[in-house]
Automatic annotation (TrEMBL):
Belongs to the Tom22 family. The chain crosses the membrane at residues 45-62. It is found in: Mitochondrion outer membrane. It comes from the Eukaryota. GO terms for biological process: protein transport. This is Mitochondrial import receptor subunit TOM9-2. Keywords: Membrane, Mitochondrion, Mitochondrion outer membrane, Protein transport, Receptor, Translocation, Transmembrane, Transmembrane helix, Transport. It is a single-pass membrane protein. It comes from Salvia divinorum (Maria pastora).
Length: 85
């Protein structure tokens, strides 16, 4: 049984030291590094887009809504008072 354990030990050590295993681990490490960098840069871009939206677009939407309400109020007043001919 000890000879079987020796064979398994040598086989597992030769597989773990294999160039294919090394290249696989290196590729996985590189992939994880690139994924983390991409995630960080994507998060930064999302923050920039979200902040720009809040600063520029939300006030525009609010102002357009106010103008629409004002126009609607003018139309109601004109219909009640009668528009000048």
């Amino acid at each position: 049984m000890s000879s079987d354990a020796g064979i398994l030990s040598r086989l597992s050590s030769s597989v773990s030291e294999s160039p294919v295993v090394y290249k696989g681990k290196k590729a996985a490490s590189d992939t994880a590094f690139v994924a983390s960098k991409l995630l960080k840069s994507t998060g930064k871009a999302a923050w920039i887009v979200g902040t720009t939206f809040l600063v520029l677009v939300v006030p525009l939407i609010i102002e357009m809504d106010r103008e629409a309400q004002f126009n609607e109020l003018e139309l109601q007043q004109a219909s009640l008072l009668g528009s000048p001919k």
